[in-house]
């Protein structure tokens, strides 16, 4: 073990405190030790690091250039040590207090709201503040402890706990198929009524490729009697026989299980993006998840299951 390995957290705390207070005597008064003891700890720290950390005179203390640089590392190490200690302490406690969750509107209605009572029963001291929005939310500045997001994971500032991989299903109602027939290939869709979601970047394209294949995706720009920016409205239109929809199974899985919608082109993979889409729980990388966040995420993983219940 070299000298640097032996640097103690106590020495780091006293060093940072001296920088903040600018005085050995003030730090001694606050910590209940003799000023000479504080001075001796700092001297030992300088000897271990083989560098002078402080300029000393009769009126004040000031950090050297090396001391100022070392202070940044010291503060970071103390923050990490404190956070680790809090995490270990929290593991011994039951979740309690406020946890703020942000989730998409429809997913929150379908797959979070039904479990809130069970979550409250398991953790009676936990208070949930659930905000549902489909608008973009800046995860580093929003007042949320946990974000539930659906889509391509590409934000390196966030830690992601995947909850489920999104699987898209092409579907139509039995009434529609009885009237207009069943498409057999993606090319047949040009002759069908396609109900297309239109977001801020325009109408979504639909992508298909043979199932169990790594062939390139083929893109299709399709049209029909209804284009809209609300997935629930388009789903209802499909249930009423207006046309075909391509939506994730978490949205239309129940209707498929009940036979109100029929899955089409099952021998093809379907998607609305060329990159894999995921349902995930997010929190900033700069923070360790609190016991409340861990409890909620573990609860969701348990309730959704693998594969998620809407894909079984």
Q: Can you characterise this structure?
A:
The mean pLDDT is 89. By secondary structure, this protein is α+β, with helices and mostly antiparallel strands. The strands form five sheets. A five-stranded mixed β-sheet has the order 4-3-5-16-6. The two termini are 55 Å apart.
Radius of gyration: 29 Å
Percentage of residues in helical conformation: 25-40%
Q: Could you give the count of β-strands? A: 16
N→C terminal distance: 55 Å
Q: CATH homologous superfamily of the largest domain - what is it? A: Periplasmic binding protein-like II
Number of distinct helices: 10
In one word, what is the shape?
A: elongated
Overall pLDDT confidence? 89
Briefly, what CATH class of the largest domain?
A: Alpha Beta
In the sheet with the most strands, the strands line up as: 4-3-5-16-6
Residues in β-strands, percent:
15-25%
CATH fold-level topology of the largest domain: D-Maltodextrin-Binding Protein, domain 2
Largest sheet: 5 strands, mixed
* Second-tier CATH architecture of the largest domain: 3-Layer(aba) Sandwich
Low-confidence segments, given as residue ranges, are none
Secondary structure category: alpha+beta
Give the ordered list of helices and strands. HHHEEHEHHEEEEHEEEEEHEHEEEH
**Can you tell me the number of structural domains?**
3
